[in-house]
Amino acid sequence: MRELTYVARRTVEWREVPDPGLRSDQEAIVAPVAATPCDVDSSILAGHGFIEPPFALGHECVARVVETGADVTAVAPGDLVVVPWSINCGTCDRCRQGLTAHCASVPYMAMYGAPIGGSWGGLFSDLVRVPYADAMLVPLPAGLDPVAMASASDNWSLAWRLVAPHLRARPGARVLVVARGSIGLYVCDIARALGASDVLYVDPDPAHRALAEGFGAATAEAVEALEPARQGGFDIAVEATGRVDQLARTVKSLAPEGICESAGNHFRPGELPLLDMYLTGVTLRIARDNVRAHIPDALALAASGTVAPEKVVSDVIDWEDLPSALPEKHLKPVFVRAEG
């Protein structure tokens, strides 16, 4: 089979590797049918990652189950499933607490799309082995489009986690989103659907701002350009730029006891306004997301019809064009493979 391999800045290529096979009765083999790059993949492709190539890329997809082990009961061949980005067993103490990104049964940071906790391959591959099928795979609800939900493996479900629990605790909260990619746009859509009283999206890209406005958000080009009335007035803030200077400006925009969720992958060091954060009583969370625990709720919201994740999909591209098209700059392209 082929797996898409990152080999150098803005360069990927198909490489032939052996077909994966079942290694236990708990496993499944799946074939991705709609796969998309995570926002962090864009940073990797631009040469800003911290892992030297080559390695298999991709950790967001909807796939078709091809084969299952004898003990797998949650899915069957032919099912469409969401494949979460992190490898998790579902039964260790951490997994039972919902900390699936910190599973104790596999090496630390075991994941698809980067050889950090072992080599698990990537989801831009013709076939993928899923080691704990019942724990990991989530059936795609009937009626949901695999293209629209290709990002449920990570970015869509992460966006749900970034705001949904906070809005449940703080109905009508004011939400600030400082972003450069799909995560922030998903957050705008979800926050509006879940009753945020005010959503402000900050991004220098006018096309991204136009999408956010379609979700009912007000927009601005830069945090530092906010009018004084808006500075220090947000109950919840989400930073998804990967830039510490933007994170610093984001936390300074919070109201007293405000919450900041950082979804940016900060590959470079920087400084935060710790005294200001102390005086305001800011809660800051920077976390590798335990996305498997949130996928069912995120899919349920998508199925409710109150959100429109398909609007963030910028391009639908044939699977065979991955090597040439993936390095190009797109907001949220989805690569689709014909079945049958």
The N- and C-terminal alpha carbons lie at a distance of: 16 Å
Query: From the coordinates shown, what is the CATH architecture of the largest domain?
Result: Alpha-Beta Complex
Helix percent band: 10-25%
Examine the coordinates and then state which fold CATH places here, giving the name of the CATH topology of the largest domain: Quinone Oxidoreductase, Chain A, domain 1
Number of strands: 16
Structural class by sheet pairing and helices: alpha/beta
Query: What is the beta-strand fraction?
Result: 15-25%
Gyration radius, rounded: 20 Å
CATH superfamily of the largest domain: Medium-chain alcohol dehydrogenases, catalytic domain
Mean pLDDT equals: 94
Overall 3D shape = globular
- Low-pLDDT segments, ≥5 res: none
How many discrete domains? Answer: 2
CATH class descriptor name of the largest domain: Alpha Beta
Which sheet architecture does the biggest sheet show? Answer: 7 strands, mixed
SSE order, one letter for each helix or strand: EEEHEEEHEHEHEHEHEEHEHEHEHE
Number of helices: 10
